[in-house]
Design goal:
With 263 residues, this protein is an alpha/beta fold. 40% of the residues lie in helices and 13% in strands. The mean pLDDT is 86.
């Protein structure tokens, strides 16, 4: 945690200060990770094109980052662009997102400097377009000496690919045939009893796209009917695996010609 003298609580909005006043500063997390989901649905609910949802999402990134820096949060990691997004989204949308990333870095660099934010990246960033990589390196080098919040963008990232890449760095050949559950399919549904919102180091490799169901019911009170209720809930969900579904906002195939608004 930052030294108290470096906090900038007075720069929070009135609403933010009211919530901060209810917190225990000594118990703030060191690292907050966010799955930034819903840009397309935000646009779809407003009958807007998807790119407007992504632009609004980029604004949220900076606002959240600035709030984190003001309360002295050391680490903020944002799931910005998944490996599945890169593989399964329409190329016009992917290209727009790459342009939006470049625009974000360019237009928000000074704000990152003003807020003492250092930017870094995780993921298979070497697979991103060269011009995007250049802008990423430029922003990282420019903010490298900042000592406040470290904003990490997960780009072209996947949890499984991270594990694979880590092992490949240690050995030229790596197989997972000896993993405990190699003989069974990955879980489709993970049920957590007692209301705790944690994975608790359980099947980390296998639950990359597992649906999670949390119930307040304690395990001794859990019965077959409750299993069926969980399955019924599971069956009402729409599993996308990083792809798109109807109602998630219109994809504009002419996205290349869209001008990105400055922040």
């Amino acid at each position: 945690m930052y030294p108290s003298g470096t906090l900038r609580i007075h720069e929070l909005t009135a609403e933010e200060r009211a919530v901060y006043a209810t917190l225990k500063p000594e118990r703030l997390p060191d690292h907050v990770a966010i799955i930034m989901d819903g840009n397309g649905r935000w646009a779809g609910h407003r009958s807007l094109k998807r790119f407007l949802g992504h632009q609004q999402g980029a604004k949220s990134v900076q606002l959240v980052t600035e709030a984190a820096s003001r309360i002295g949060l050391p680490w903020l990691t944002l799931y910005a662009f998944s490996l599945e997004n890169n593989l399964r989204r329409p190329r016009a949308e992917v290209n727009f997102l790459m342009r939006l990333l470049k625009s974000y870095l360019e237009s928000n660099l000074q704000r990152m400097m003003d807020n003492n934010v250092r930017i870094r990246y995780i993921g298979r960033t070497h697979e991103l377009p060269p011009e995007v990589q250049e802008k990423m390196i430029w922003a990282a080098e420019a903010t490298a000496s900042n000592t406040g919040t470290t904003l990490t963008l997960a780009l072209n990232y996947g949890g499984r690919s991270e594990i694979v890449d880590a092992f490949r760095a240690l050995a030229s050949e790596m197989k997972f045939k000896h993993i405990y559950t190699a003989h069974m399919p990955d879980p489709d549904l993970l049920i957590r009893t007692s209301g705790e919102m944690r994975i608790s180091n359980y099947l980390l490799w296998q639950i990359a796209y597992t649906e999670i169901y949390v119930t307040e019911r304690l395990w001794p009170d859990f019965r077959g009917i409750h299993l069926l209720e969980a399955i019924a809930d599971f069956q009402r969900r729409e599993r996308r695996y990083g792809g798109l579904t109807e109602g998630s906002g219109e994809v504009d195939e002419e996205t290349e010609r869209i001008r990105i608004a400055a922040s």
